Amino acid sequence: MGTENHAEAWRLDLGANILSDGNVRFKVWAPFCSRIDAKIIRRGGKERIPLRQDDWGYFQAITDRASCGDRYIYVLDGRTERPDPVSRYLPQGVHGNTEIVSPEDFRWTDQNWRGVPLSEFIIYEMHTGTFTREGTFDSAIAKIPYLKQLGVTCLEIMPVAQFPGKRNWGYDGVGLFAVQNSYGGPVGLKRLVNACHRAGLAVCLDVVYNHFGPEGNYLQDFGPYFTKKYHTPWGSALNYDDAGSEGVREFIVSNALYWITEYHVDALRLDAIHGIYDFSAKHILEEVQERAEREARISGRSAVLIAESDLNDSRIIRPRARGGYQLAAQWSDDFHHSAHVLLTGERGGYYRDFTSVGDLAKAMRSAFVYDGKYSPFRRRRHGNSTEGLSFEKFVVCVQNHDQVGNRAYGDRLSSLVSFEKQKLAAAVLMLSPYVPLIFMGQEYGELNPFQYFIDHSDTGLIEAVRKGRAAEFVSFGWKSVPDPKSRKTFDDSKLNWGLLGRKKHRHLHRLCADLIRLRRQSRFCSDFSRRDIGVSADDAGQWVRLDYGKNARCRFRIFFSFSERTEWVPAEGLERAGRLMIDTEGLRYGGQCRKISFREGRLALHPFECLMFRLPGKNGRRLKG
pLDDT tens, 86-133? Predict the structure, then answer.
């Protein structure tokens, strides 16, 4: 990527910014206010700086009476004190004063970093507070060599925008520009990103633009940030298309660009975009994408936007020329759901829509199982076609924070299925043609749960969360829920790294690392198109077959067994010319080391086994490697 006519990179204009002459400029959008003062708090006393209002509802002032490290709070209309909506740092939490931060003070060493192509993303999703015992950015840095050895290429960090208290998933954030104080604040996050880039890892940051958390959300005192036109499951909908929405849109666009520019993140994962309602001529997602693309061209770095969506709507990732928003990728829940049902047998809630190995085969082929067909769970048709879209446009998983943490007990696959099925799940994920996502600890079979936890201070809100969690699980038949406010719920959710010392966990980790290495060498996302992949399924035998390079150069053939008994599957060419690449039930991975068996042109596929073969090229020669 080159530069865009030597244009200047975007800089955050809102909040408190230190100017080149050392003065500080305060700027805030607050059309609901008639007067705003910045109350400066520093050693030696306090003083108020009045801000002037312009015709668009922005208040600003430049002063030489504030400096880096000072703290301030806005006084609205002479009486109400509120934190800056664009606070870079809230060291006292969501109700406290803002600290003035100088972005120029951090010394980056990633000037030559250009990013990782999306087709090479192997994502590792991390919750900072539970990833390590310390729960900080700095302690996460110590795990980077481990992530490199595993083979992942992108660290995805769950939301770090300031939330109430010290314990939260991050989706209750209210200080959208402030990095969580208990994790290490702005400098801690920058150190983590810098260290990742130094090690060759991309960084994806999870951001939330569909709602704000219920505690410490003071935006409604400043302007029309929310609208009553729409409602989300998590609270008031952001105002993207109602009266006064221009300031809201610029606020959100600025936040996306802020992470890309000031924090050097390579990608943003946009949480639950089905909760973003916008009927403007240009959807907010398209606007964010356009602005991010521009910054990528200027900086020469990547700026990848990945949507989490429950819509199965391919317009999110289709080109603008075809009526799309042109985001880089989106999550495919159907892949997870179809695999989960086959592995666990669960049928409650939305899992009732997934009934056979044919669903997984369709997810392997098309990403969406529900692409316009009738959904019994929703009682309506759901989704549209993904025809013509490349594999790298979809991120898939067999576990993630939602699918684990939104269970009543936060139980992982390791608590639900056998060791053999865990290995099968790893193979299904890593040998799929899509961008894979690993949820922290999954690679070695973490046994600790990942539960839902909060640290709100409002007792009424805490009780409401407790009741809401209990009601959420009725359709799944789950009756009791760990207390989300309890410190124990949080501590129980921390990874137990000591498990890597146990034999089965080492075997699973070795398999995952081998699968990643094989995937990176084979370049499934980039080297194969839809024309090159063949998928079939056998409902009677409960197996799925995946062929890469089917058009005259069949290079890889993979079988996934979901059967409890040995099945004999068509072996066409495998006995004579196939080279075994992966057997999840081999001795190397803690299996029984069975000999690969052929009989009358068929191959023995053992219960919950994955077999992968490499085949000769079209001229009959074996491929190298």
Answer: 999 999 999 999 999 999 999 999 999 999 999 999 999 999 999 999
Q: How far is the C-alpha of 364 from the C-alpha of 324, rounded, in Å?
A: 23
Per annotation, catalytic residue among 308, 334, 402, 443: 308
Report the alpha-carbon distance of residue 536 to residue 540 in Å, rounded.
13
Both 587 and 467 in one domain: the answer is no
**Which residues touch 314 (CB under 8 Å, ≥6 apart)?**
324, 368, 384, 385, 386, 389
Per the annotation, the verdict on 308 as an active-site residue is yes
pLDDT of 144-169, one tens digit each? 999 999 999 999 999 999 999 999 99
Does the pTM exceed 0.90? yes
440 touches 169 (CB < 8 A): no
In angstroms, the CA 396 to CA 400 distance is: 9
Please pick, among 156, 206, 241, 271, the residue that the annotation labels catalytic.
Answer: 271
Q: Nearest 5 degrees, angle CA 596-CA 612-CA 353?
A: 115
CATH number at residue 561: 2.60.40.1180
Q: In whole angstroms, give the CA distance from residue 562 to residue 549.
A: 24
Same domain, 196 and 250: yes
Contacts of 307 (CB under 8 A, 6+ apart): 269, 270, 273, 285, 316, 317, 327, 329, 330, 331
* CATH number of the domain to which 56 belongs: 2.60.40.10
What residues does 395 pair with on adjacent strands?
A: 331, 435
Give the structural domain span for 573: 531-614
* Closest to 237 in 3D by CA, of 206, 217, 212: 212
Does 619 reside within a domain?
no
